[in-house]
Structures are given as C-alpha cells and as structure tokens.
Amino acid sequence: MRKRPNLYTNYRKESAIFPNQTQKFWFLTLLLLSISLCFIASDYWILLISRSLTFAIGAWGINIVSGLAGQITLAHGSFIGIGVYTAAVLGGVSTSSVLGYQLDMLIWLPAAGIVAAAVSLILAPIAVRLKGLNLGLVTLAFLFICSHIFSNFISVSGGAGIGRKAAKLVIFGKNLEEGFEIGGYLLEKNQLLYFISLFFCILMGLGFKNLVRSRAGRAYAGIRDGDIAAEALGVNLFRYKASAFALASFYAGVGGALASVISGGIEPGSFNLLFSILAVAIIIIGGVGTVLGPLFGAFFYIMVPGLIQYILKITSLTESALPLNLGQIEAMVFGLFIILFLIFEPRGLWGIWFRLRNYFKAWPFSY
Amino acid sequence: MKSLRKQGIILFTILALVLVACGGDAVEEVVESTPEVVETLDSPAVTTASTVKTGVGITSDPCPEAVGSFPTGADPSKGCIYLGLINDYTGPYGALGPALELGQRSFWLWANKAGGIGDYSVAIVEGGDAQYNPAKHLEIYNAQRGEVAALAMSLGTPQTLFILDELDKDNMVAAPMSWYSGYAYKDFDKGLIIEFGATYCAQGMNAMDWAAASLPVDIKKIGIIGTAGDYGGDWAKGVRAAAEANGVEVAWEYLPPATEFDVAQAVGLMVTQPVDAYFPALGPTAMAQVAGGAYQQGLTPIAMMAAPSFNDAFVREGFALAPLFTSGAMYVAAFVEPYEANTAGHAAMRATFEAIGQTTGNLFVTAGWASQYHLKGVLEAANKGGDLTRAGIRRAAANVDVESDGMMVKRSLGQNRGDVETFIGVPIDSDENGKVLSGIKTIESRYIGSTAASRDWTSGPCS
Hints:
Largest sheet of chain A: 2 strands, antiparallel
Oligomer: heterodimer
Helix content of chain A: 55-70%
Shape of chain B: globular
Number of strands of chain A: 6
C-alpha cells in the first residue's frame, strides 16, 4: 500500500483532509515557510500577506454560499461590515462620537462572526424561498439597507466619510498594540497580526475543507446542482440554504474583523456594492467551489497592486509618466483577469494549479 | 474516534481556561518603571545650537536627485529630510491630487536650490493614494511613518483627524490640505497640524458677508450644499453664522452622508425651493453635476463656491458648462490668491514653474506651494534649535513665527487663533493678457467681513 499512495480503498480515506503523505508534506512545508517568512519579509509584504490571508477567510465565506450551495449573493460585503463593526464596538476605544468597550479579542472575534451569522438568519426566511436573479435582488436590497445604516449609525460606524478606528489587539488581557516580547525578541504588532491571520486562515481553511466533505457540504452541492432533486432526496432546503448563509456570514464577519484590525480603521462607504462584487470576483479568479481557490484569489487581488508597483520599479517607469494612475491600472488589470478567467479558465487559478499539478504528477508521461 | 474527539475538546477547553487564567487582569500587573521624562511642547522652540540632533526620516546621505520623474533640486553635499505625502489620486478629489503634489514638489525644489534647511535638503517621498478614505489614509500613514520626519500633506479634514492619535504617538507634524477651524487650536490638533490660511468657517462667513454686501442681487434666501462630517460642516457653520448676522434666511441645507450624496436631490431642492444664492462645499465633479443640473432646469442662482469645489477646467473652452461658470453667477472663496497674484511667493512659484516647463497654474498648485511655507518655517526653527527629531520638530511647531513671502498673512503657530483673511474671485478663462492659468480673477485679495471680524477667534473652532 505504501507504494500506491493514491489508491484509496475506502471513502473515508479518499475524503480525508490530507488524503496522502504528499499533501501533508506540502502543507507542513508551506506552514514552516509561512512562519519563517514573517522574519524575512519587509513590513510592506507582511502587511500584504496578512491582508490576503484575512481576505481569503471572507472569500471562503462567499464560496460556501455561492460556490458550494450555488446561491447568488450580493450582500457579502454587508456581512463583512457587520462583523467589522461588531468587532470595532466590542474591541474598540470609545470616543465622543463612537461606542467602544475595549474587550478582549477572544470575545470580539467570535462575536463578529456570530453577530454576522445571526443577522443572516434574519434574512434567511426570505432568501431561502428565492433563487437566481430574485435572490440576487433581495441580497442587493439588503446591501443598500446595511449601507444606509452603516452611513448613518454614527455611534457605531463614525459616519460616512469619517469612519472609526478598529478593535484593539488585546489577547488574554494583554495589550499587544506595541508588540509582544518573547525571550528578548520583540514581535511587532504587524508580525503578531500576521501570525494571528495565518492561524485563523488555516483554521477556517481546514473548516471549509471539512465542510466540503461533510453531510452539509454534500447537501450544499446537491442544492447547487439541482435543488428540486436534492429536496426529493431528502435534503431540507430551508435548513441547508439558511445554514449556508449563516456559515458564509460567520466567515465574512471573522475575516472582516481581522482585516479591519490590520487596516487600523474603517470607513462605512467601503462596504458598498463594488466591495460585494469584489468578493464574487475573488472566487471567480481563484476558482469557484474549490478549497484553495479563494486563497489564490485573495492573494491575487491583494498582491496585484504590489506586483504592478514592482514592475513599474524594475522597468523604471513612474506613475506620473503613465496616462493612468495606479488605482486605475489595478482596476483594469483585475477586470481583465476576470474576463480572461471566465473565458479561458472558468476554474480560476485553482484550475491552472490543478493542471500544473497533474502535469508534473504524471511527468514524464504528461500528454 | 468519538472518544478521541471528546478528549480533544476537553483538553482544548482546559488549555484555554488555563491560558485565560494566566492572562490575568491588566490592573493586577505590577509595572516597575522609572519616571518618564516628559518633553513639554510649550518650551521655547527657537534657540541656536551648534550641533543638530536628528531622528527618523533624516539621513546624512543626500536626497535622491529625483522622486519619480520630479527633480528634488537637492544639494548632494547635504543630508536629507524626508517628508511623507498622503494624497488622493482617485476618489472625489482625485482630480486635484496631482496638482497639489506638483505645487509641493516644486516648492521644495525651489527651497532646496535656495539652501534647504541648514545642512539638509528636503525630499517628499512617493505619495500614497488615500482615495479620500480615512481607513486608507491610516494605511498609507502606517506605510510611511517609519521613513519620514513630517508629513508634507495630509489631504482632507476627517482623514487628518482620523490619524491624529497616531501622529501624536509618533510626534509627527503634518501640513494639512484642508482648512478645518480646529487646526488652529491645540485641544483639537494636539499641536501637530501646521495650519495655513483662513479656516473654512471664516471663508464661509466671508463668502456670505461679501455676497450680502457686494453683489448687485439682493440675497434674501440661501441654500448650503455639502456632505456631513466633511469640510462642508465647518464651511456651513460659517455661512450660517454670517447669514444670521445679515438677516438672510437659510432656506435649506443639504448635508447628507458622503455615501448618500444625490445630485438629483440637491438639484431638486434648488428647483422646489429656489434661493438667491447657494454655498457649495463639494468636490469638483459633484459641483459640476449640481450646477449643471440646476442649469438644465433653467436655474442659475449665485454660487459662492468653497475652493475645493472649483476646477479651472470649468472655464476652459470645450467644457459644456464653461458659459455658466464664466457667466458672473459663480464665485470662489479661498485661503490664498490665485497663481497670477503679485506677491514674492507667487512670483517665486511662477519662476520655478517656468524653469521646469510647467504650464499649469490652477488654484491647487498654488495651494500645494503655499501649504509648505509654514512647514518650512517649523523645520528651520527646529534646525536652529538643534533638534530635528520628530519631538524637536513638534516642539518647534508649538511656538514659532512663520511667513510665506506675502502669500498669506504672517502668523505665529501655536497661538490658538484661526486666520480669517479670505480671497474672493470670479471664474474667467482669459483676460486682456491672454489665458488666465488659474481660471480665476481676483475681486478681493484678503477680505474680512463683519461677521468674521466680530468673532473672537481665540474662543475655539466653529465645529
């Protein structure tokens, strides 16, 4: 059996989180690499990677509801916002205009996910009765309602155009805003945030992988591929659609809360329609319905500006010498990639990775 | 398998409880520390020292010859003071950002050629695009804070106030690119914002006073347009105070949250509740939409624009609304006279622009140039005092006389008093000398109306 690592003799083994030694090996190697990267990379890259990791958590969320369960949602940005503001109120500092209770991250982080999930359950009775464009419209309406609330609920959000500071980094009662000293070595706040993001990214990623292979995951796939057939097979549509929304919102809340702490502040105008569409775009580019796709998509989205800047630098081109500014170039590159992926590789970056992996797996007989 | 999972859960719970218990309460911690030396910001700033203490953002290596494609004019035999730049290249003020930056980089090119700051030249680092978003603003600040001694620009009022705690922690002074009335008061800006020019509130008062006193039209009813929490709030307070003083009715105020600003609603107000004049404090895009929308409805009330609402492109040939903006119904209130003005500072700016082949001269390049004078004064004072660390620069900013080659009135920083002298002009494309680069003709260089004159400006900000 040791010579046939890819021969699965039962379903349990085939659907294991790490079905073979190779995957375990690469997971551990990447984990070690990720940890060591924090001590090698500059602050700029640490920040970008941390943001990618938190965006991946949010992207896994929309991948549950849209990729796995096949439900269209344009309200993902709102659930991210709900998580962000829950965290900011519970973990942030109170000022003359905004509320803040300076609670521990052990409270505000799960609360961010739970409150977002709870709000999505309020939407669930309507959402589960609809599908396709109608569902899209309901979620769009929800997005506008949330956007209005975020803009005007000043004691929570600070108000449109003004914003508020994010939750403080306090864990187990220890204030980590100035870093954490371990044996004479000071781990700076951005390094701590990197490790926290990495930890939760792995945790939530494994959670997603586990979900895919579970009863719920199979039910979601059944609903996506044919909800009437799924119902005929005994899948409770209401329960599973509602749970998909709730789980997706939990991921959104947690990812958003972590991302906001990395940014340091949040402005309510950020949670607009474009932001929700961006979440959809990330999973389209990464690979809809796949485990690694959202991770790839999130890294792609966050790294594009850095890469464009790097290309400008090595080509000695300056922004002022170009007819477009960096923001416009980023938007165009991102839009172009969405079009290209939809036409040429609907499975996204994961699809490319899948083909590459299979090519080298079968090498030298890759034909 | 199940029992293994159960054991795992129990183990995890115990571990979590132990960790929480070990975490303890911050109050219980016994911290042994020596008393911290507190540097008072009110201590005399300007002394003469033979050696200069330096800190973050200052190098003994020379400044780069150019940042991007723009020359710094730095002296290769001198060290370098790096300044940060939080700008907008996209968003509602994205059209103005490059012009502001051009003015600032040109200023330091000129200042470096003229000798710089003691043994140092000055270079502004590559700007970051904050998109007029406070959260992005903070991100860019965090990216720049480790490499700069001060900020050459922090664009926007709410954005600048958003990063004030971080500036405070870092002792980072900043030249703002907004004129919030709180910048003049230590309780509001912690002595970190190097204000320059009349506040929005004073500009609003003067715009209203001037309109009531000088326009041939009898102004009885006015409207105010802006966005809540943005610079329009301060402007609106000034306009309202002057309206009250002049017995003018404020028929409506349209100040929704920035995300909900609706041009149709603003135009609707003008149509359903016509006014003699309106006082917009917007970005140029929204301004053109509102003015154009009203124009389409056949309405051309007097518009007294706050400077950020105006763009010289409004008066240029080919712009559909140019006839409206040059009709004599639109006016601009600003903190400084436009590009063509006759002061030593304006002349230096024009000479520098000509030397580098720049052909723009709008209000924003002038604002960019003028914004650096007081910062330069602060850096010079810190250098003279022998302390170019951030704390030293901050201390210098707390009490120093600054001037601007006549562009603005001379003032002392840290005196808890806002400036009031307001420029008032009318948009034009050209005059007898040809094209007017600023797109504005001067009506009043330094106007002070009765409302602003009678207010006690040491009493605090308007909003």
